[in-house]
């Protein structure tokens, strides 16, 4: 059964909460509400009917609570802003409209706590609930402490946790102390601190610490999910009486977390009648102006006899087909079960391997945890014996795992975890790859050079010398993060432990959603520093290793590469080498600058095209070179047998596109690619050449040059996408 919670927030709305203190640009109320809105929006996002929220306003202009009767005094200017119950976006918006500073500061905070206590008592009765009261105040209004001890006893009897967060309250542990604090505020802090101390469950702190900790992601607690419940066997118990069979349960130890998914809704700029109003509160429902979108999928085939050349097909008439070469092989619905590999639920050990033979890169996925079946002493004894035997022999077990009938089988590696190493005695399992999952590649060795004749060279310009190896070794030692972290006592500890490594994608998205839910018109917050602190090496460590870094740069002869210079219209800038030498002159490739554009050969088109553009002095030369390159591309496509020359033509087209972008003449390319599309799709290049268009040009993103790629282009991104269709 889901945990049931009842939380009441007591919010000080006194006149002094509108002030700004201690250099903040926001009021005390806005500062404290940062914590409240974060907590409430988290409850809304959970969407659990068993999580109930109530809100009590302290120092409100009016009085609205059940305790304000003639026989009770001291409950004036306290109002129930929201009765205890489930929290929704609608009630969140209603509540937000009520959170404003008042013109009074005379209400008693302890009386407001009593109002919240009565709300919880009435709502929860004697049922099992997690009960909590959270008080946010600046401690400026007077507090009567005559019955504080009695109130603490009432909180303890009901089982309520009391949390008091004060704006600019002193906190020695956090290291905050307000200077020139008024005497009455200091006295009120002591009263509230004493009240919390008398409670069996409670906390007292300053709001600055609470707001600071909001950036720390809250890990969602997940209930154990049983992935398997059945026997773990060694041998076949049905055939051999001596076979081993242990009743076990398998749970996930690690499972990939995913960010929240989004759903499509209608454009909010629709007509006003699309808004849905809450008649009880007089405000629009959550998601104002947004309407859910229903998707409708249709299937069509080409049919010359049908209207428009296409005919609708019912889903029942479809069949699954698999690609086989350049054709497809269909299977009927009656044959789909045959395609499934027949398996039965099982968990069988098929062998054992030494621990030293396992390579970490063989891990194929999420880790599982295997324990003995609950309330089964025989299973506990059998699994414990297996775990200790594997541990003593320094071996792993390899098992075939099928979690349910007709499920695909997995090969798991079982690692023993005896109780002597951890609090739990279990087996950890890791999926292993099949032969088809392994990618075997061969790369040249890093410590030697093999010549064509078979000789082995240990000294070569491509191999690091002794000085470079020593410099790299010193650099690695200087950047060691093994014990760079510190524990609570300041002693060296592990740096970036797993418990402090948060997924920035998931938590940044959650924080953005919470912020937008509470403040729809406010800008989204930046990425919290706690999510990015481990994405770069620590600055103090880099400063400490400055000597080793400089030594490595010197030993490796690292030099700055000049940035790539963007070409100018009619003249492409050349990058001068660091040596200052004329590379073209050394290679004998200097071309005389004549008015006549050299002819580009098909065999060496790309280098010659680039050289012409480097020496071009006018637009006519660029246009002539682009025209020649375009003719070569068309000839390659026309002369190609099937798709043999398509890759070469696509590479020429890619170079032509890049060079004309650098020369700032995208119009030349856009005109050419438009004509090329017509020729390819119409069959003017010696047959059906549509594959060249769809696979190499559309697939290779060689379409029109857009304004995002070249400022002088007149083609928008939308036009470029439409051109490729």
TrEMBL record:
* Annotated keywords: ATP-binding, Chromosome, DNA damage, DNA recombination, DNA repair, DNA-binding, Helicase, Hydrolase, Nucleotide-binding, Nucleus, Telomere
Q: Which reaction does it catalyse?
A: ATP + H2O = ADP + phosphate + H(+)
EC number, UniProt record: 3.6.4.12
Where in the cell is the protein located? Chromosome, Telomere; Nucleus
Entry GO CC: chromosome, telomeric region; Ku70:Ku80 complex
Kindly list the biological process annotations in GO that this record carries: DNA recombination; double-strand break repair via nonhomologous end joining; telomere maintenance
- Superkingdom classification of source: Eukaryota
UniProt family annotation:
Belongs to the ku80 family.
Q: What is this protein called?
A: ATP-dependent DNA helicase II subunit 2
Give the species this sequence originates from.
Neurospora tetrasperma (strain FGSC 2508 / ATCC MYA-4615 / P0657)
Upper classification of the organism: Eukaryota, Fungi, Dikarya, Ascomycota, Pezizomycotina
């Amino acid at each position: 059964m889901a945990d049931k919670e009842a939380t009441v927030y007591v919010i000080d709305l006194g006149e002094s909460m509108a002030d700004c203190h201690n250099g903040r640009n926001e009021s005390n109320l806005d500062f404290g509400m940062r914590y409240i809105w974060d907590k409430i929006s988290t409850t809304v996002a959970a969407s659990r009917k068993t999580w109930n929220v109530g809100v009590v306003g302290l120092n409100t202009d009016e009085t609205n609570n059940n305790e304000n009767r003639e026989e009770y005094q001291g409950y004036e200017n306290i109002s129930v802003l929201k009765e205890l119950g489930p929290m929704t976006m609608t009630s969140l918006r209603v509540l937000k409209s009520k959170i404003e500073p008042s013109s009074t500061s005379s209400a008693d905070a302890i009386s407001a706590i009593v109002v919240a206590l009565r709300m919880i008592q009435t709502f929860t009765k004697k049922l099992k609930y997690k009960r909590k009261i959270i008080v946010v105040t600046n401690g400026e209004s007077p507090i009567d402490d005559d019955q504080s001890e009695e109130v603490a006893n009432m909180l303890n009897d009901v089982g309520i946790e009391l949390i008091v967060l004060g704006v600019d309250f002193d906190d020695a542990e956090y290291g905050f102390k307000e200077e020139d604090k008024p005497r009455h505020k200091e006295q009120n802090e002591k009263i509230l601190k004493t009240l919390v101390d008398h409670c069996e469950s409670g906390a007292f702190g300053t709001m600055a610490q609470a707001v600071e900790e909001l950036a720390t992601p809250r890990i969602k607690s997940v209930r154990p999910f049983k992935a398997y419940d059945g026997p773990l066997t060694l041998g076949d118990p049905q055939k051999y009486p001596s076979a081993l069979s242990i009743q076990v349960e398998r749970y996930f130890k690690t499972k990939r977390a995913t960010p929240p998914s989004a759903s499509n809704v209608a454009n909010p700029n629709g007509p006003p009648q699309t808004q849905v109003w809450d008649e009880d509160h007089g405000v629009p429902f959550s998601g104002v102006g947004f309407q859910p979108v229903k998707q409708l999928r249709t299937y069509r085939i080409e049919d010359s006899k049908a209207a428009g050349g296409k005919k609708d097909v019912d889903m029942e008439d479809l069949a699954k087909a698999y690609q086989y070469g350049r054709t497809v092989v269909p299977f009927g619905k009656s044959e789909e079960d045959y395609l499934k590999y027949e398996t039965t639920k099982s968990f069988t050990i098929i062998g054992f391997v030494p621990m030293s033979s396992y390579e970490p890169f063989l891990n194929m996925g999420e880790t599982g945890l295997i324990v003995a079946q609950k309330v089964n002493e025989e299973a506990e004894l059998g699994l414990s014996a297996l775990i200790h035997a594997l541990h003593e022999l320094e071996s792993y077990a390899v098992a075939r795992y099928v979690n349910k009938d007709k499920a695909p089988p997995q090969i798991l590696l079982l690692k023993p975890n005896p109780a002597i190493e951890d609090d739990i005695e279990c087996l950890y399992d890791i999926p292993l790859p099949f032969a088809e999952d392994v990618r075997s590649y061969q790369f040249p060795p890093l410590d030697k050079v093999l010549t064509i004749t078979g000789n082995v060279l240990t000294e070569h310009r491509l191999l690091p010398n002794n000085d470079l190896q020593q410099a790299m070794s010193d650099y690695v030692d200087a950047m060691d993060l093994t014990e760079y972290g510190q524990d609570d006592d300041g002693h060296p500890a592990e740096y970036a432990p797993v418990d402090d490594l948060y997924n920035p994608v998931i938590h940044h998205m959650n924080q953005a959603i919470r912020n937008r839910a509470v403040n729809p018109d406010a800008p989204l917050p930046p990425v919290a520093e706690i999510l990015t602190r481990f994405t770069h090496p620590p600055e103090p460590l880099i400063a400490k290793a400055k000597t080793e870094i400089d030594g490595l740069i010197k030993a490796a002869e690292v030099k700055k590469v000049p940035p790539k210079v963007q070409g100018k219209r009619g003249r492409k800038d050349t990058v001068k080498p660091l040596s200052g030498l004329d590379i073209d002159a050394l290679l004998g490739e200097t071309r005389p600058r004549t008015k006549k554009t050299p002819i580009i050969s098909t065999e060496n088109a790309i280098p010659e095209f680039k050289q012409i553009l480097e020496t071009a002095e006018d637009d006519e030369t660029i246009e002539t070179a682009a025209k020649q390159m375009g003719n070569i591309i068309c000839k390659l496509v026309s002369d190609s047998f099937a798709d043999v020359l398509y890759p070469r033509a696509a590479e020429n087209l890619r170079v032509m596109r890049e060079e004309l972008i650098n020369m700032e003449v995208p119009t030349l390319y856009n005109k050419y690619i438009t004509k090329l599309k017509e020729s390819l799709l119409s069959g003017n290049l010696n047959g059906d050449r549509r594959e060249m268009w769809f696979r190499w040009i559309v697939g290779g993103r060689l379409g029109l040059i857009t304004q995002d790629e070249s400022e002088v282009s007149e083609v928008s991104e939308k036009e470029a996408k439409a051109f490729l269709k």
